[in-house]
Amino acid sequence: MNRDNEIRDVFVVADNVLSPLGKTTADNFSRLKENQSAVKAHHNPEISQQPFFAALFDNNDFLQADQKYTRFEQLLIASVENTLQNCAINIADKKTVLIVSSTKGNISLLETEPYNIDLKKRISLPHSAQLIADHFGFLNQPVVISNACISGVLAIITGMRLLRTGQYENAVIAGADVITKFILSGFQSFQALSPQLCKPFDQSRDGLNLGEGAGTIILSTNEKYHGNIKVKGGSVSNDANHISGPSRTGNELAHAIKQAMQDADVSSENIDFISAHGTATVFNDEMEANAIVIAGLKSTPLNSLKGYYGHTLGAAGLIESIISLKSLQEGLVLPTAGFEQAGPGTAVNVVAEQLNIKANNFVKTASGFGGCNAAVVIGR
Amino acid sequence: MINIKTLLSKKYITSSCTISKDIVGKNGSNLFEGHDADTSAFLLSVYQHFKLSYPKFYKMDNLSKLGWLASEILLKDDFKPHLYQPAQVGIVLANANSSLDDDIKYYASVGDVPSPSLFVYTLPNIMIGEICIRNNFKGEHALFVQEKFDTDFIETQVNYLLDNNLLEACICGWVDVLEHDYKAVLFLVEKEKGERALPFSKNNMNSIFINN
What is the C-alpha to C-alpha distance for residues B15 and B94, in angstroms, rounded to an integer? Predict the structure, then answer.
């Protein structure tokens, strides 16, 4: 297919990161430049008998007075609202679609509400997405993606593809997850949590930290955004190996990275840095390092933002893509908080100190339960 | 400028499978009728009737069991794996209740000892992982949560993947379970006609979906 004639450019119009570090992308990036992390020790017997490390909101000042929305929905609303304030996208338009990404959405209602037919509806992700669509006045039925830890990256890829087909001109893509007993106990049962600050790609990494937050990115094919940063390509693959453990080789994530670069029409030499999934579990980081070597990116600077935000699940792909986009604009790759020394399985170019570079393109990767992998290329 | 229509590949539903209301159907014929009110017992009776042998089946949650069974019956005799590389086959699924059926069971275990084997199924895309593991499918995949089966949206997604040659074959459809209610409708979409020559379209998906 002739790319020049057929593929529409997909521009980034506006974005927001709402996290314990700040309410806007700019706030967040300032805190990150100061090396602040949202991850800390918590003792909250309501959700865990044992103390745990996580990145949680200290106060809920993003909550609106309107009680008809849950905490999960209010996070999404606050993030989308801030994003819309920074652009002139018309949402009450058949050419605009809302895409919502979450792994567990309103699952905490199982902890507090009696299970009955009303709860069954209240807990469903399409119901939450429709409430948010109605709140802002979107005309189209929202798209909901729940595909484990690649949900956020897959939401960006899905948005990019829907815009390329010409069905829509604008996509508002928002992701969020909140951390409660349901999720925390599950990761504890898997013995996947680190008893301290997580250490992505470090030789002594010992598990992940969970985090909560939201991220929103608005994409458009409207040529008036020509010159803005673009979502250039993306791809998804499956390990076909194990539902809760990564590939033994990394070949499948490498395939997704290579396909994403091909889709973006860039080669590995044109990738200036990588925002890795980097959960800091022993097996994830090793698989990911293997994949990055196979994809020809062994010496490309790489970071993981999990040491700042923890693993924000369905928001992670969005938050980390948006922060990396900011890095691209500012020419500043953030260090991998928690990383000191690479182990034998993670011999890639992990960024340990702030790195000033002139960057044109980066790759964002994600992998998750069910053997899923995703990669997206964002750049000038 | 090239007319994009001329570049779009033709696509066909080369097989379909439905599991709903105690009945298993394939390509329009009923193959099995069960008599168990309980979803787990019914799914086991399907597994036994089709003489399937896959020990991993027993550890799956009901959503993965339903999706896996439907994929086995869908692919049997109609899918030629040697025609494709692993990364050329993908899966696009939707459902209404995500993994709520297993979420409830997992959360019931939390008061006692949280069960990692239940927790792992608290993600709806795990059923895609199970089908991929069984068949060594390594291509594009996605799980969308929709109140009702949105054939228009699914058609767009599958068309994109096949028209851009990201996939050569794709399983798509609906797999939903919540307690006693369940429904699976899967379609195998390929670029070659096969015996039935049913074009891949939202209307053809709809008519199979609604009649089962």
Answer: 18
**Local confidence band at A3 (pLDDT 50, 70, 90 cut-offs):** very low
B-chain residues near A105 (CB < 8 A): 98
List, for residues A325-372, the tens digit of each pLDDT value: 999 999 999 999 999 999 888 889 999 999 999 999 999 999 999 999
Q: Which domain holds residue A187?
A: 3-379
Q: Give the count of beta carbons closer than 10 Å to the beta carbon of residue B211.
A: 11
Q: Closest approach of chain B CAs to the CA of A134, in angstroms? A: 15
So what's the pLDDT on residue B1?
A: 39
Q: Does this complex have an ipTM over 0.90?
A: yes
Q: Which residues are registered as beta bridge partners of B30?
A: B25
Residue A1 has pLDDT above 50, yes or no: no
B181 φ/ψ angles, rounded to the nearest 5 degrees = -95, 135
Q: Which two tokens stand for residue B77?
A: 């005799």
* B110, pLDDT greater than 50: yes
Query: What is the number of structural domains in chain A?
Result: 1
DSSP state of A163: H
**Sign of the CA dihedral A380, B3, B9, B10?**
positive
- Beta carbons of B142 and A127 less than 8 Å apart: no
| Rg, C-alpha atoms of chain B | 17
What length is written for chain A?
380
Q: Which of A368, A318, A372, A320 is nearest to A156 (CA)?
A: A318
Quote the CA–CA distance of A379 and A99 in Å, as a whole number.
21
Indicate the SS3 state at residue B179.
Answer: coil
pLDDT at B9: 77
Query: Please, what is the end-to-end C-alpha distance for chain B in angstroms?
Result: 44
Write the pLDDT tens digit of every residue in A186-242: 999 999 999 999 999 999 999 999 999 999 999 999 999 999 999 999 999 999 999
Contact across the interface for B141 and A238, Cβ inside 8 Å:
yes
Backbone angles phi, psi at A314, to 5 degrees: -70, -15
Residue among A19, A39, A151, A147 nearest A79 (CA): A19
- In A, residues 281-320, which contact B (CB 8 Å cutoff)? none
Chosen CATH of B4-210 out of 3.90.180.10, 3.40.190.10, 3.40.47.10, 3.40.50.300: 3.40.47.10
Please tell me the distance from the alpha carbon of residue A111 to that of residue B107, in angstroms, as a whole number: 8
Neighbour-count burial of B147, counting CB atoms closer than 10 A to its CB (0-12 exposed, 13-18 middle, 19+ buried) = middle
Q: What distances in angstroms separate CA A55 from CA A33, A177, A193, A320, B87, one per listed residue?
A: 17, 12, 13, 15, 36
Query: Which chain B residue shows the shortest CA-CA distance from A167?
Result: B156
Q: Which residue in A125, A165, A372 is closest to B141 by CB distance? A: A372
Which CATH number characterizes residue A42's domain? 3.40.47.10
Contact assignment for A190 to B119 by CB distance below 8 Å: yes
Instruction: Give yes or no for A116 touching B (CB within 8 A).
Output: no
Please report the pLDDT score of residue A62 as a whole number. 82
